[in-house]
Write a structure and sequence with these properties.
Length: about 260
């Protein structure tokens, strides 16, 4: 078993584990938290009381704990510092207005895509993934288009000894098949998720580059496959590509 670094403070690690657990579970009692994290009830109560006094947790009328909006506020401060998010936001609004589907900004986080920003479609039937949500790279248009702009060796290292999770019958689960598709995506300049993350949802994504020429994010439009047909994505594609190019240029990218 790997030893933690000498500087690591166990109490902070335990507090982090509580916050992460509540982020997943929503609301839990002291006993439930103690059981899930293998902590004595009195020990768990002290952590929860401290986190609550710091404004990081709230307590419901039935004495169950949940995350407070303080964490959301901190997260949004970080998100707003991201230059790409600030630049892309108005373009996401414009794309949504023109095409009436949900527009997204994704960034890379390990083997996941994090939704850094999104503008919801006004339709009742729409893709429902919140800002901050993590989804796998290999079965999303956002993820694949960012992977396509990384060296093949980096992609292989990223998925070394990691299974490509099957989300739908259309999900790519072979690294060789994924690499082949990434080559095509790199040549075309865009990626498509054809019901690979979730059945009934299609998406098209285009990469965003910064002044160093590195792909740092991607923009996408997603919607139910009933509306987001292959034909519609073909019509949308030039607009999404033009927007991604403009955002990239705002970030100092110059195609050589």
């Amino acid at each position: 078993m790997k030893k933690p670094p000498y500087y690591q403070i166990k109490s902070l690690e335990k507090a982090k584990n509580i916050l992460e657990l509540l982020a997943v579970e929503g609301e839990l009692s002291v006993s439930e938290i103690g059981k899930k994290l293998v902590m004595h009830r009195s020990h768990a109560h002290r952590f929860l009381a401290t986190l609550r006094s710091l404004g990081l947790l709230e307590q419901s009328e039935d004495a169950r704990y949940r995350l407070s909006f303080k964490l959301f506020e901190w997260g949004m401060v970080v998100a707003n510092r991201m230059e790409v998010r600030q630049i892309a936001h108005s373009f996401l609004l414009d794309l949504k207005a023109r095409h009436e589907e949900t527009t997204n900004l994704g960034i890379l986080d390990g083997i996941d895509v994090v939704y850094a920003d999104k503008i919801e479609s006004s339709h009742l039937l729409r893709m429902d993934l919140a800002i901050g949500c993590h989804v796998p790279l290999h079965c999303t248009a956002l993820g694949k288009v960012m992977l396509a702009n990384r060296p093949e060796m980096d992609v292989r290292k990223l998925f070394h000894k990691k299974k490509l999770e099957r989300r739908t019958p259309n999900t790519i689960t072979s690294i060789s098949e994924l690499l082949g598709q990434l080559t095509e995506i790199r040549e075309k300049g865009y990626a498509v998720d054809d019901e690979e993350l979730a059945l009934g949802v299609r998406c098209i994504a285009v990469p965003i580059f910064n002044y160093t020429g590195n792909c740092i994010a991607a923009i996408s439009i997603a919607g139910p496959s009933l509306r987001m047909t292959i034909e519609k994505m073909e019509k949308i594609k030039p607009d999404v590509m033009a927007v991604a190019k403009t955002v990239s240029m705002r970030l100092g990218f110059e195609k050589r």
